[in-house]
Amino acid sequence: MSSIEVNKAIARRFLELVSEHRLEELCEMVSPSWTMHGGPPALPSGPDGIRKLFGTFGAIEQQWTIEDVISEGDKVVVRATNTCNQASFLGIPSHGRKQTFTAMFIHQIADGKIIETWRNADDLGRLLQLGARFEPGTPQAST
């Protein structure tokens, strides 16, 4: 199997393990210097970052469905859909509402480990599914 195919398999496995809540196996997939962009702020690097990330979820039932996997060099892009039921998201209670949203992940992989992840997800769409409402702010007075 080519290195591109191996990297694609690693990226697929990552989301499978997230769906299955297999935290320690996820920790084994990332390098000690792993970082995530587009997730919660101030995540530590490496496996501790994975653990803290999962700590932000609270009670959640989720299933990731992979739509596309594209790879070039040491990067793998995964486009996926998540269907989940989570007690709250970004402080908005779910009241039992199921949420469905799309996300894209770009993983940089070296020596069989994920060393960096970029996340771009429809977090606004999730909030709207939970019933969040947004109001325009008041204009700032000029000084």
Describe the structure.
The protein is α+β, with helices and mostly antiparallel strands. The protein has helices at 3-19, 23-29, 46-55, 123-129; strands spanning 30-37, 60-72, 75-86, 88-89, 92-93, 99-110, 113-121. The strands form 2 sheets. It has a 5-stranded mixed beta sheet. A two-stranded antiparallel ribbon has the order 4-5. α1 packs antiparallel against α2 (23-29) and α2 packs antiparallel against α3. The model has no long low-confidence stretch (mean pLDDT 93).
Structure classification: alpha+beta
Numbering strands along the chain, what is their spatial order in the largest sheet? 1-7-6-3-2
Radius of gyration, Cα only, in angstroms?
17 Å
Low-confidence stretches: none
| Biggest sheet character | 5 strands, mixed
Features:
single chain; 143 residues; alpha+beta; two-stranded antiparallel sheet; 4 helices; globular
Brief rundown of the structure:
It contains 4 helices and 7 strands, in the order ααβαββββββα.
Chain-wise SSE layout:
Elements lengths: L2 H17 L3 H7 E8 L8 H10 L4 E13 L2 E12 L1 E2 L2 E2 L5 E12 L2 E9 L1 H7 L14
Helix pairs in contact: 1-2, 2-3
